[in-house]
Write a structure and sequence with these properties.
The protein is mostly helical and 454 residues long. Helices cover 73% and strands 0% of the residues. Helix 5 runs antiparallel to helix 20 and helix 17 packs antiparallel against helix 21. It is globular.
């Protein structure tokens, strides 16, 4: 080998070593918790422990919000009887708005490695809000609004998007299935919390001690969730928030999905907020009426658990469209609610199909996303308008509009028809299934550290 070749090889080797050092320094500074492995493990103790912690976060956060029907009934009849149903529904409508609106903050912070801080601070705020709510007195509408609406919603908003996004660090092939299982924590929580709250608030315990007992239960589960979740690695942000927002504004599929799902959510809250009150006002046995939300959320739990399995055969988008049409028909059918049988049928059917839809929305975002390093930012943008049990703007409008249409005369057919029609209009904005052919395959997506890029 000539001296010239030897010198050339020596300089080439040194340049490669310098590049590797620079790359390692850049990763350690920009993404302090980068992946240690080459690919998401799709299993293992740490992965499933994180999934369990995320499940508990959904149980205590989204599940508690979907139990507001108990508070709506109790406030309307007893605790805030001087206020109309439309005003009371603002207490339940604001937390979903803040949960998704705060995702605009928590999503980018998650991308920058703030996962643990978001989980701890959000959990503390949620726990504090529930304990503070127990000290409100009858008729103190604005105090209940600030505590249960603002403080609790902000705390849940800090934890919601990151607790869903972190699943992508541990699962790849099983991602849709695991996300569906994680979101099933919401309907399970919406089954357990109403049973507990109805027995506490409407029993001998009373409002103050009952809410404190509920707060202690939620706080213990949030502590377990924080101890269970671990980050494997964080996507390395390659572009700023504004750049991702501009990119989303030019993507037709993303815009259609956002607009359509916003319309969907405007209608989805009517059964959640008013099914129990509807049952009580139709003189159905009050003890059975207390379990109307439990029936609906039990079916929702089954729908979420089976959504990932069915979607593997039908496709995520096709199953989403089918569940939307079914939910619209069932909401309109609430006009015929009159006895126990109708409550059971409507609760089971609507709960199942709404659960299927909700479970598929976050996986649908990842399907339409060409660059997984933008996951936190895109989820923040998407959640502000749409997705899952609520949307920021859709959820904020849904409950109060339904309450205003219901009025003090309890004309149930008007909000039922409105919610069903606006719910069905979501179908017009759904893209066709063949549009998925334009989505970049996973092999051509831009790699990120969470996906094992080194």
């Amino acid at each position: 080998m000539s001296m010239k070749s030897t010198i050339h090889n020596m300089f080439t080797t040194n340049e490669k070593l310098d590049d590797q050092k620079d790359l390692g320094h850049m990763q350690s500074s920009n993404s302090p918790t980068a992946c240690s492995g080459s690919d998401p493990p799709d299993g293992g103790f740490q992965a499933w422990a994180t999934a369990f912690g995320c499940f508990l976060m959904q149980f205590c956060g989204s599940g508690y919000i979907l139990s507001f029907g108990v508070y709506q009934d109790y406030y309307t009849r007893i605790y805030l009887a001087d206020h109309p149903p439309s005003a009371i529904s603002w207490i339940g409508a604001l937390p979903p708005f803040l949960v998704d609106g705060v995702a605009l903050i928590s999503g980018p912070l998650y991308d920058r490695g703030w996962f643990y801080r978001l989980m701890i601070v959000g959990s503390l705020l949620q726990s504090l809000a529930l304990f503070a709510l127990s000290f409100t007195k009858p008729g103190q509408f604005y105090l209940a609004f600030m505590i249960q609406g603002v403080l609790s919603g902000f705390g849940m908003g800090l934890t919601y998007a990151p607790s869903m996004a972190v699943i992508s660090q541990h699962f790849s092939k099983r991602r849709t299935l695991v996300m569906a299982l994680v979101t099933s924590g919401t309907p399970l929580g919406a089954m357990i919390h109403p049973i507990m709250l109805n027995h506490l608030l409407n029993g001998t315990v009373g409002f103050a001690r009952g809410v404190r007992a509920s707060a202690g239960f939620v706080s213990a589960l949030l502590l377990i969730a924080c101890l269970s979740m671990r980050t494997r690695g964080l996507p390395a942000p390659t572009v700023g928030y504004s750049a991702v927002a501009r990119k989303c504004s030019r993507e037709v599929l993303f815009i259609l999905m956002t607009v359509g799902s916003t319309l969907f959510v405007i209608g989805v809250f009517f059964p959640v907020f008013y099914l129990q009150l509807d049952s009580v006002k139709h003189d159905i046995d009050i003890n059975f009426s207390f379990y109307s939300l439990v029936i609906m959320n039990a079916a929702c739990f089954i729908g979420r658990c089976t959504a990932g399995i069915i979607a593997a055969y039908t496709g995520v988008l096709n199953l989403t469209i089918a569940s939307t049409i079914a939910c619209s028909a069932l909401i309109i059918s609430m006009i015929a609610l009159s006895d126990i049988a109708s409550v059971v049928v409507l609760g089971l059917a609507y709960g199942y199909f709404s659960g299927v839809y909700i479970a598929l929305m976050v996986p649908l975002v990842t399907v339409f996303m060409p660059d997984l390093s933008e996951l936190g930012v895109r989820m923040g943008i998407f959640l502000t308008f749409v997705v899952r049990e609520w949307s920021a703007f859709g959820g904020l409008l849904s409950g109060p509009i339904s309450g205003a249409l219901l009025s003090s005369q309890y004309r149930w057919w008007i909000p039922s028809l409105f919610s069903g029609v606006i719910h069905l209009s979501h179908r017009m904005f759904d893209v066709r299934g063949d549009a998925l052919d334009d989505i970049p395959p996973k092999s051509k997506r831009k790699p990120c550290i969470a996906d094992g890029a080194t």
